[in-house]
Write a structure and sequence with these properties.
This protein is mainly alpha-helical and 74 residues long. It has one domain (3-72). It has 3 helices and no strands. It has helices at residues 3-22, 26-46, 50-73.
Length: 74
């Protein structure tokens, strides 16, 4: 899978989580975030490209922020 495809998929998945949070489906949002986090960890484990690592780390921080939002809302 190419870099652009990976980031487009991450963007779509994170937007889906944000949409779920907006309609208060916290459990489903949390499940999706866990899946996204696993995907991010797989990317981090399999790449040594510094630019890719920096870009993926931005998504990792966003996922952590969204997880905090979920836990605060429960």
């Amino acid at each position: 899978m190419g870099e652009n495809t990976t980031f487009e998929q991450l963007k779509r998945n994170i937007q889906a989580v944000i949409d779920l949070l907006a309609i208060r489906k916290l459990k489903e949002a949390n499940n999706r975030l866990q899946s996204i986090q696993e995907h991010i960890e797989a990317i981090l484990d399999t790449t040594s490209d510094d630019l890719l690592l920096v870009e993926v780390s931005k998504y990792q921080i966003l996922v952590q922020h969204l997880q905090q939002k979920i836990f605060q809302s429960e």
